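hi! just following up on the protien thing from before. the input was this:
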Amino acid sequence: MATVVGAVTRAVAAIHQSQQSLTVPSCTSVAASRAVSSQSSRSGHDLARGYSSGAFFASESLHSFVARPANGHQQRRGSCFVVHADADYYATLGVNKNDSKADIKSAYRKLARQFHPDVNKDPGAEQKFKDISNAYEVLSDDEKRSIYDRFGEAGLKGQGAGAGDYNNPFDLFESLFGGMGGMSGKGGSPRNRPQQGDDERYDLTLDFKDAIFGVAKDIKVTRLDSCNTCSGSGAKAGTTPSQCSTCGGQGQVLTTAQTPLGMFQQVATCPSCNGSGEISTPCSTCRGDGRVRTTKRISLKVPAGVDSGSRLRVRSEGNAGRKGGPPGDLYVFIDVKSDPELKRDGTNIYVSAKISYIDAILGTTVKVPTVDGPVDLKIPAGIQPGSSLVMAKRGVPVMGKTNLRGDQLVRVVVQIPNKLSKEERKLVEELAEISKPEVAAAR
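and the predicted 3d structure came back as:
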């Protein structure tokens, strides 16, 4: 029995020694060009040409690979290459490519809480937090996500969309969590820093033709503007804010309670400073908010071709930001009145023209309404009821391309009289007798 155990022990030791002898030598790192994610499969095949089937060994990083040349290629002994590929945003967040925006947001919130530098003090936590934020910023935006799915990081840089809309990952974090007491990455309360103002909405009703050809409108918008008395600080003139002693300037306090399941901690807004992190004498005009509600007249140029549901964006005309932050935007939502005669469908206009059965047989010219005014339309002889005639480029201008217009389609409605006079009936009967041979021949 001892002999068997000894043999096994020696075999295990030999295997361990052989594994140590197979350790891959230190490699010379080679900076590889960042590959487009949609071409990653093709790039992998190109890289693998000339290498043995077992030439790739995964390293600790998900997107780093070690490539070793096959025996048939001349290469300095003991050397190797390290190839770094682009980051996989889906893998960074731990989601699948087909997951919804809600799933991506949920994954980001979970990981952001876990790796926020104010909570996680491990080395590399801050970089992990930035990677998570960068991945979420791209995948939460439909346009950026589409570009990334097709072209990878190189596509985002080519479109100038790699940097995102946030100054740093901490702003992105706070846009979802609203600040978490010290988890700002900058120290102090997030509410005490400049914050961008909210967007404002205005509903505008337009006449039918004003929407088609565009119009200039003066609108009155009620919004929050920076307080002139305190210059937006919220503090009474001549006073200086002091740090809140209750929360230490964090704006939030941590409470701890013992439960049967263990210690339970909860973060709540500081009751002393209401989350600002500072104690100050409030401005009498704005009552400490730093903003006052005012009404402003704005000159708005409505482009040609808008329709009900169109939305116009007026930059920096929304509510003022807190603590001197930039203002939001004004969004003008368009509603267009209907026309009793003209019906719109996209860039085309539809209208009906009524003619008598005699005019349908002989042909005629009628006046039809258009967005440009009444226009003469020639009805060809023998037109069939329900036929449509096209009036080219009499429709709605294409928004942003006023030199392009849709068409107007005129549906011909043939009116048949309910009653005929004796003379009319006699003439119609004579016409019917004349037409009988032609009808029989056609059959």
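The two ends are 111 Å apart (CA to CA).
Residues 2-86 form one domain.
cheers
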